[in-house]
Give the backbone structure.
Amino acid sequence: MTDQPLSLPVQNRFIWPATASLLILVWSSGFVGMRYASEEAAAVTILFWRTLLSGLILLPFALAIGPKMMPRAILAQMWFGVMSVFLYLGGLALAIEQRVPTGLVALISDLVPLAIAVLSQPVLGEQLSVRQWVGTAVAVAGVLIVSLDSLSFGGAPIWAYGLTIGSMLVFALASVLHKRRRTGHMPVHQSLCIHTLTGAALFGACALLEGNVAPPTTRNFAIGMVWLVLFATFAAYSVYYTALRMFPAAKVSAAIYLSPPVTMLWSWALFSEPLTLLMFAGLGVTLVGVWMTSRG
C-alpha cells in the first residue's frame, strides 16, 4: 500500500465514477467465488488457499518490481495483513460457522463505510458535510431494505455476533490507518503480497488445527479459487487501496454500500436466484445515498 500522490488528474470528472464502478463490481464479486468453493470445503480451507495462491502468484513480481522491501516496512505491512485479511475475513467466516445468519453477517460487514466515515474525522481530519451524513444515512437505509428478506437473528452465541461487528470495525480501522500513513510507502502489489502471505500463514495454522488443509480436487472448488484470487483479492484489494490514495476514505468506502444490491444481480445472473421489488427499491435508495455522500 502507498500514499504517494499520483500524477493522475484526480479532478477529472470521469476518474471517480470509473474507479467507483470498478470497485463496486469487483468488491461484490467475492460472493461468487465463495458460493462455488463453499460447496466443497470448509471456510478456513477456502481462506487458506485463497490467500496462499494470491501471495505466491504475487511474490515473484513483488521481488522483481518495485523498491527493495526493508524488514521494517515488511513488518508494518504484516500488521495490515493481520487486520485486513486474517481478522476481517476470518472473523466473518467464523461467525457464519457459529450459526450467525449469513444475511446478518453480510449486512454488518457492509456497514464498513459507516465505520470509516465515523473514524475519518478523528483519525484523518476528513470532516463530512451535513449532506454527506444525510447521504450516509440514506445509503444505510438502502442496504437495510436490500437485506430485509435475508435477515434473521438465529441462535448463535452472543460472542459470535460481537465477532462480526469487531471484524467489520477492524477492517475500517485498517483502512483509515492505511490512509494516514505518510512513511514506509510500498507499491500495492508488494503490500498485497505481504498481506496475503501473512493471512495464509495464520489461516494455514487454523486449518491444520481443524485438519482441513488439503484442497478438494473438484471443478467447483477450482472455479471458486480462480474467482476469489483474480477478482475478490487481486482486483478488489488493488482497486480499493489505489482509490484510497486518490480520494477521501469516506468517499471511497461509500461506494461499498452498493455491494449488496450488485451482489443480488450476480446471484440472479449466475445462480438464478430471484429478484424482488424490495431489492430494486433498496438499490434505488442506496444509489441516492451514495450519490449524496460522494458528490463533490
Q: What stands out?
A: Residues 219-246 form the longest helix (28 residues). The CA atoms of residues 101 and 152 lie 6 Å apart. Residues 15-294 form one domain. Residues 1-10 have pLDDT under 50 and may be disordered.
